[in-house]
Design brief:
The chain is mainly alpha-helical. Helix content is about 65%, strand content about 5%. It has a domain of about 70 residues. The chain contains 6 helices and 2 strands; from the N terminus they run H-E-H-H-H-H-E-H. Helix 2 runs parallel beside helix 6 and helix 3 packs antiparallel against helix 5.
Amino acid sequence: MARQRRRGGVTWCALVALTSILGWTAPAGAQVKIAFVDSDRLFAEYPKTREAQEAFNREVQELAQTAREKKAETVEMQRKLDQQAPMLSEAKRDQETQALQQKISEYEAFVQEHWGPTGKISKLNEDYLRPIIDRVHRIVADIGNNEGYQLILDAADGNIVYGDKTLDLTDRVLSRLKDEDEGKIPLTGNTGTSGGQ
């Protein structure tokens, strides 16, 4: 199961260019509050991500087994055709070749339908990860809104070469996720993912 990443350098350059063009600055005398989270670490350390990964893997294994069976059928048909071809009439050989090509096409369509760019595996990945990603975004936005952060970056995108550990909110986000899961605090409201806009 994989998270799709945005191109970090392009995102960072666009952010710098946009702030330069718009003249974004903090109000006079105000301090700009910036922080970061490490989404790779969040996904590695949050237990529900592992649970989602295991459920995803179970579904993928079932599909992979079906794909292996379909592939084995085509291999067996090819083996039989190669073995019997010298003894078959041209019409029968053409018929068997056409049946083999049909079986190969079915197998390739199955693989494309499930593992292709818009296939079932990609959708399953999204289905399992989206609720976790949405929760993380809501928590980060909540922290940003409530504590006056102007910018919270993701260290996993490769944009942060150095960051003071006091600016790292990853442990706080993990703690909030855990507290929400245990019912210690209510689920963070849907404040959006755009930093309060």
